[in-house]
Amino acid sequence: MTTTAAASGRWRLRQPSVIPGFGLTLGFSLAYLTLIILIPLAGLVWRSASLSGAEFLGILSDPRTVNALKVSFGTAFIAAIVNVVFGVIVAWVIVRYEFPGRRIVDAVVDLPFALPTAVAGIALAALYAPNGWIGQILNVVGIKAAFNPTGIVIALVFIGLPFVVRTVQPVMEEIDSEIEEAAATLGANRFQTVFRVLLPGLAPAILTGFALAFARGVGEYGSVIFIAGNIPYVSEIAPLLIVIRLEEFSYGAATAIATIMLALSFAMLLVINLIQAWSRRRYGHGA
Questions:
Q1: Distances from the Cα of 187 to the Cα of 54, 182, 196, 228, angstroms
Q2: Which residue ranges make up each domain of the chain?
Q3: Which end of the chain is less crowded, N or C, counting CB atoms within 10 A of the terminal residue's CB?
Q4: What is d(CA 156, CA 239) in angstroms, rounded to the nearest whole number?
Q5: CA distance 182 to 103
Q6: Which positions ≥6 away from 185 have C-beta within 8 Å?
């Protein structure tokens, strides 16, 4: 009997399934993730480990490196916040309202996925440059929207919006409109219905969308370099600095900066995932 209990305890690690091939598919998944993700990241860390501690700290404390990291992470964070606000609104309009051209609006959301990032950068630079259609209007009120960190935020908002919309939209579709009607029947105003009834259930999905948009923004290169201006200490992003170090054949410095970005990104995404898990446990909704 003890043997049977021990055996059943061991088999709890794998849930019963009518679909065979668990061992094969698990082995393939682990091998694939190792080859595609773990080995390249390990190689990056190993290459940067060839630097001495003093050299690594020197690269980390270099003012140009610090400023590039601030620009990359700061603009990505701001763009992700903007995308959360407007992404939720766009998802709400697509899910809750019927209007002519709704399917077209739904399809346009995915356009940044299909559009090459370099094309997006050129288009945004042409629009928001001082002599561009939108740039000329903004110059009248004293706003320079290109060739500075503001331009970087605009590019990251463009490429990050679909991540928030497509993450929030399926969860929003599962929320029955009768919940809103019940809240109104119980005396809740529109503000209370949104912030106390709807948003708590959407919180895990919103955090997931924020994390995806932020992660994409931190590593974005193609759409940013055309509108950023790439001025050191002003609008130079970390991915561009890595490319510059590679062109200078300073492979150690390039891998060191990449390792720093990897560590910072992992730490921030870990915090976001912990908050998401807490939100899911509290409100009982999955992303």
A1: 64, 9, 13, 49
A2: 47-283
A3: N
A4: 14
A5: 29
A6: none
pLDDT confidence of residue 21: 73
**Residue 153 burial (CB < 10 Å; 0-12/13-18/19+)?**
buried
- 101 by DSSP, 3-state: which? coil
Closest CA to 64 of 269, 256, 219: 256
Beta-carbon contacts of residue 270 (< 8 Å; ≥ 6 apart): none
Distance between CA atoms of 286 and 204, rounded to whole angstroms? 6
Residues of the chain with pLDDT under 70: 1-20, 283-287
Per-residue confidence (pLDDT) for residue 281, from 0 to 100: 76
* CATH fold of 47-283: MetI-like fold (1.10.3720)
The DSSP line for 205-240 is HHHHHHHHHHHHHHH--TTTHHHH---TTTT--HHH
pLDDT of residue 163: 94
Query: How distant, in Å, are the alpha carbons of 7, 80, 134, 223 from that of 219?
Result: 47, 13, 26, 11
For residue 231, give the nearest of 129, 156, 152 by alpha carbon.
Answer: 152
Report the Cα 103 to chain-centroid distance in Å: 25
Give Cα separations from 111 to 107, 115, 156, 160, 162 (angstroms).
7, 6, 14, 11, 8
**47/252 Cα distance (integer angstroms):** 7
Spatial CA neighbour of 130 closest among 229, 232, 233: 229
Question: Would you state the pLDDT for residue 166?
Answer: 94
Predicted TM-score (pTM) of this structure: 0.83
Residue with tokens 């190689």: 43
Residue appearing with tokens 């993700």 = 37
Question: 128-135: long-range contacts (C-beta < 8 A, 24 or more apart)?
Answer: 128/154, 128/227
